[in-house]
Design brief:
Molybdopterin biosynthesis moeA protein, domain 3; magnesium; alpha+beta; molybdenum cofactor biosynthesis; EC 2.10.1.1; 8 helices; binds ligand LQZAQKY5; molybdenum; metal-binding; elongated; Molybdenum Cofactor Biosythetic Enzyme, Chain A; binds molybdate ion; 19% helix; six-stranded mixed sheet; Molybdopterin biosynthesis moea protein, domain 2; 415 residues
Amino acid sequence: MAPDNFSGTGPVSPGEHLRSVLRLVRPLEPVQLSLADPANFAALHGAVLAQDVAAAHPLPLWENSAMDGYAVRSADTANAPVDLQVLGVVPAGSGADPVLGPGQTVRIMTGAPLPSSADAVVRVEDTSGFHETTVRINVPVAPGRDVRRAGEDRAAGAPVALAGDPLTAARLSALAAAGAASLLVRTAPKIAVLITGAELRTPGSTLSRGQIPESNSLLLAGLLAESGLPAATVEHSPDDPELVRARLDALGVGHDAVISTGGVGPGEYDVMRQVLEREPGVRAVRVAIRPGAPQCVGRLRAGALVFALPGNPVSAAVGFELFVRPALRALQGHANPRRPVLRSTVLRGWKSPPGRLQVLPVVFDEHGGCAPAVDAASISHSVGGFGAAQGYALIGPDTTAVVPGDTVDVLRLQP
Ligand SMILES: Nc1nc2c(c(=O)[nH]1)N[C@H]1C(S)=C(S)[C@@H](COP(=O)(O)OP(=O)(O)OC[C@H]3O[C@@H](n4cnc5c(N)ncnc54)[C@H](O)[C@@H]3O)O[C@H]1N2
Ligand code: MOO
């Protein structure tokens, strides 16, 4: 009987495997990046904060107008319609603080500081228009009307973002608005993809019997990009142990992680496993999961982490999602390296193998219900059906069938 694990021990549970993968991770050295230099924007977006950041000043900084119109003393408008004397204008960017006496006003634009002697804004639509000398105010306004108070969004010193937070577009803009000049961040790790398999030909090639189009390089480069992590290098290697070892030695120096596909099974030509079994920091395992069971994971002598995934395309995608993506996010110090698990109602049932976590590609309907994207009996090679998948259903080892109406755990990859 073939051993469950090519190293001779039993299969490891997916949870145990993820824990041992995450134990390998040493977070990258953080770098300080200025927010003032647009050349840094691409690196900042998707980087992960390595420090807590508090607001350097209140947000908004000072009381200002929410509308284009007139800054007024609200009491002057109580008997509107009323005519007020126009003293001038305060546009955005002006530091002026004109003093309004009774019956006086200034034109004011959105975002401009409210004069200290005013307590409300009348929108231009509620007046006779923009005038130089006198304006008719048509409506009374209460104190505070269309005024943004200093600090109403965030007080000075209040937290804006925490170490481990990913720098989304929204978070970056919040940090800049709150006065951050530069940020201590972990930028994207440098990742190499190494594809092995003698049967593989460049997409579009004329194929002889036994040859297929190579699709895992596009798969992994795309999954990395969808995780905000570009692949720095994509290479192919012939199934020759010396050549594979040479590529791993070379890629292991210049990259933080090397992700390979192919050659991790127990076959005679499964070169990746044979080479990696000689690496002292790498372990060949079978994970109690379907698809994606055989994998080699560890640290190369050359320095990089290595994730050797199966050649079967859906097995490689599942291995990436469950183990590689969390590890790469942990390299960046992500507070939540794993994707959140959601619940979904089953629309069409399927069978699941006992004793394994089944990771089934699914599509979702408009209400979030899920149905298989591929035949559940043969997931690993079904790259065609997988093309439409929007997520994975996670079916535990004690469940052998799910039926319509069941609620299952899902990972949602696409909206
Ligand atoms: N006797 C056994 N055979 C197999 C076992 C086993 O336990 N005992 N495990 C099976 C499982 S599970 C998997 S998964 C695969 C692992 O295979 P490998 O990592 O060795 O992958 P390959 O043999 O190289 O390829 C498998 C399959 O995928 C196709 N492939 C590979 N690379 C690509 C690529 N870049 N683009 C597109 N398609 C690719 C390849 O042609 C094969 O069809 O082993 C099982 N066997
Ligand atoms: O576990 Mo393999 O990954 O069935 O396809």
